[in-house]
Specification:
Layout: H1 5-18, E1 22-23, E2 35-37, H2 44-57, E3 63-70, E4 76-82
Parallel strand pairs: 1-3
Antiparallel strand pairs: 2-4, 3-4
Amino acid sequence: EDFDISYWIFYAKNYAQNIDLTLDETAIECWDNPISANANNKNIGADIESRLKRYKNVEGFTSVWIWAEKLSDTQYELYIGYA
């Protein structure tokens, strides 16, 4: 099954902006455990939304950056940096 990580990066960036977080490519120094992203993970969207809401509403961060690191042809780790 094909898996397009760029879809989830776009999804996360779009969601972040929709909840008034600023995208800042320098916000890469601090991040929590990455979100496991592959075709078998059916909770990626919920995981992204939960993480971004927590960063904004609980932690009080205002800026994020989202990127992924490829582990294999079918497995990625999705990172959300914050500042």
